[in-house]
Amino acid sequence: MLSLDMLLSLAAYAFVMTITPGPNNVLLLASGLAFGVRRTGWHLAGVLAGTWLMICLVGAGLGALFVTVPAAQTVLKLAGSGYMLWLAHQLWNAGALSAVDAQRPIRFFDAAVFQIVNPKVWVMATTVIAAFVPAGDQYVQRVVIAGLLFIAVAVPCITLWAAGGSLIRTWIHNPVTLRRINRVMALLAAATVVLFWL
Known about the structure:
Blueprint: H1 4-19, H2 23-39, H3 41-59, H4 65-68, H5 70-92, H6 97-101, H7 108-114, H8 119-132, H9 139-171, H10 175-191, H11 193-196
Helix pairs in contact: 1-8, 1-9, 2-3, 2-9, 2-10, 3-7, 3-8, 3-9, 5-10, 8-9
C-alpha cells in the first residue's frame, strides 16, 4: 500500500492541480454561472469520473501510447482545442439567464470523455502514476487508491469553481452585464486552448 507520507504528498499535489485554473475549472465556473451548482452536478461528476478513469488508464500503460505513437498526442490536442473553441463560441453567444436556462449544462458522459483530450488531466494522471505509485506487488490496488484519493481531494476544489459561478449568478440581473461576463468566460475558455499546446 501507499505510505502515509506518499498519501499526504499526493493529496497536496491533487489540491494544487485541481484548485488552479484549467479547462475544467473554467467550464465549471461558466456552468455554475449559467445553470447554478445543482444543474452543474452531472458535469462535476463527469469530470471526476473521467479523471479517475484517466489515472487508471495511465496506470495500465496508456501513457506509453504517446511515446510509441507521437501523432496520437497531436490528434488529442486538436480534438481538445476544437471542443474548447466550440464551447467558447457557445458562451460568447449566450444571452440572458432565461435564454441560458433553456439550454442544458454539459452532460456526465460529455464531461467524462472530455478528460481524454484535456492536457491538464494527462499531466495530472501521468504524474500521479510516475511520482506516487511505485511498481511492485499490489500495483493495481495502489493505482486505484491513488486515483480515489486524487478525486476525493478534487471534489471540493472543483465544486468551488462551480459555486463561484453560481454566486456570481445571484448578483446579476442585468442582461448586458451577464452578456459581458459570458464573453469574459468565453475568452477564458478560448485562452485555455494554449494549455493544449504547451
